[in-house]
Amino acid sequence: MPQPQLRVYVPPHPLIKHWLGVARDAATPSPLFKSAMIELGRWLTYEAIRDWLPTEELMVQTPLGSCSATMVNPEVPLVVVPILRAGLALLEGAQTLLPLASVYHLGLVRDEETLEASCYLNKLPRQFDPQTRVLITEPMMATGGSIMMTMTELTKRGVDPALTRIITVVTAPPALQKLGAAYPSSTIYTAMIDEEVNQQGYIVPGLGDAGDRAFGT
Ligand code: URA
Hints:
Radius of gyration: 18 Å
Number of strands: 13
Bound molecules: uracil
CATH topology: Rossmann fold
Structural class: alpha/beta
Oligomer: single chain
Low-confidence stretches: none
């Protein structure tokens, strides 16, 4: 059996490129940066849910007759997991497309010295239905510490990695390598892959600290 390989999509959408440019620009003020993140959350979600959102075939009555219709299947559980803080801004965009999805917050903070992630808030349920589709919102995947911790927390609660989609604005090779080795059946939608992560764990050129810039801190 061939092993699955991590799929990483960089959708060639002009609005994704545009809002990435706005977010990268150091002169962009915080409220506009937040808007850029919301827009990126919207368009990356749009791309990510194409072949993932469960549908069902129904018959509907139009004013003139009956016809078949493909509708979102409300029976299949859908979940969004934003990684706090910065994942909240992407969540806002994602929710415009998935208004009925449950949202489980995960608060992770990175130690500035060791670059290790630690968890300060975990609102995940004890167990997920194995059919649950999980969309993770994480703007920056640099060293991969936060996304790896998130996947560990999700899979030990019954989430199938093959049903996860990750939306991220900028990602870098260390995070992709770790994720690909541990969770090759997951899928990533990113606006860009940058090659470098500096000693402080920031992506270069990246866009700086996404949380600080989104919240003006
Ligand atoms: N987190 C950020 O906010 N920016 C980076 O470049 C890396 C991690």
